[in-house]
Design a protein that fits this description.
The protein is an alpha/beta fold. The protein has 10 helices and 10 strands. It has helices spanning 18-31, 49-66, 85-96, 117-125, 161-176, 192-198, 202-232, 234-240, 251-261, 285-292, and strands at residues 6-10, 34-41, 76-82, 100-104, 130-133, 143-147, 180-187, 243-248, 266-270, 296-300. Helix 5 (161-176) links the parallel strand 6 and strand 7 (180-187). Helix 3 (85-96) runs parallel beside helix 4 (117-125) and helix 6 (192-198) packs antiparallel against helix 7.
């Protein structure tokens, strides 16, 4: 995966790195990227400042011990940050221009979902891709699902920047692990009932409208397939043999359903994008999808996304 050059791995315990560290080391080695392993500590509200300094140094030593036996050629730094976890991670991304954050999902015991509060804040607000690994991550993925979004006005030859990012990352990982690659687009005929209500021949008019919408999204998926074929080259595309799925319904229900049915170990998706219906993906659909997924997620944002988190004034 020759994409990332400056990777941030967030360790949630200082005793062990967990699956996120393994993935971070592999990604850094394959990309020849720098890797920073970081732990965020809460600020001590009682005690002396020197106590916090002692704790920071102990954690920094523990972080270094995690990677001491790693024999690869990756340049690794170890840092300890203090404050609110997601804020400090995003501020580090802004200040140090990290281009990937890798972290093990929180899997809070009091919730049915895999992703906790800090995870969701990162998915909403971190400007670079965020890779949240399952706490029981497989050494190699067997099935990867790339969820692409083909907006109505873009269902043509241009697959869009966000889709290009999703396809690049999903296919690179599918080739390296190796894993089966599935490309999914969920569409719907949002105005079918409206057509029925005003039409003088509701069944025929509604069927014609639905067929038109289907053909529109089919053309979009053909463009996605053509782009992936050109991106990979004939030999790699035929070796990977990706499956393309065009499914009607609501993305909020159909994407998690497809992930489960296909046994996806990883879903690669956008968290700020147009859906087939007007609206922001992160506002409703993406959050609903993420609340239902029980596998690893690699989430990307479009070029030009500006995080609401800012660096402290100096």
């Amino acid at each position: 995966m020759q994409r990332f050059k400056n990777i941030l791995c967030v360790v949630t315990t200082h005793e062990q790195g967990g699956p996120a560290l393994v993935r971070a080391l592999t990604a850094a080695e394959s990309s020849q990227a720098r890797l920073t392993v970081v732990k965020v500590l809460p600020e001590l509200r009682v005690g002396r400042p020197e106590q916090q300094a002692i704790l920071i140094e102990r954690v920094r030593t523990a972080l270094a011990a995690m990677t001491a036996e790693y024999g690869g050629g990756v340049e690794i730094e170890h840092e300890v940050l203090v404050g609110t976890a997601f804020l400090e991670v995003i501020r580090a991304v802004l200040a140090r221009r990290f281009d990937l954050v890798i972290k093990t999902a929180e899997q809070p015991s009091f919730l049915e979902r895999l992703f906790g509060s800090d995870d969701m804040h990162l998915l909403r607000k971190c400007p670079c891709p965020v890779w949240l690994t399952h706490p029981e991550e497989k050494a190699n993925y067997e099935s990867i699902l790339a969820a692409v979004d083909i907006a109505e006005e873009a269902a043509g030859a241009d697959v869009g920047d966000l889709n290009r990012q999703i396809l690049h990352l999903a296919s690179a990982l599918a080739l390296s692990d190796p894993a089966d690659l599935h490309v999914l687009h969920v569409w719907d005929a949002a105005l079918e009932q409206a057509v029925r209500s005003w039409s003088t021949n509701p069944d025929i008019e509604a069927a014609s409208y639905v067929q038109h919408e289907r053909e529109l999204h089919e053309r979009g998926m053909k463009a996605v397939e053509a782009h992936l074929r050109a991106q990979l080259g004939k030999e790699a595309f035929e070796y990977l043999a990706p499956d393309f799925h065009l499914q009607r319904g609501a993305p909020a229900t159909q994407i998690p359903k497809a992930a489960q049915q296909l046994g996806a170990d990883l879903v690669v998706m956008g968290t700020v994008a147009r859906t087939g219906i007007a609206g922001l993906f992160i506002g409703n659909t993406a959050e609903a999808v993420l609340e239902q997924l029980h596998c690893s997620v690699l989430a990307v944002k479009p070029e030009g996304f500006v995080s609401p988190v800012t660096l402290p004034a100096t």
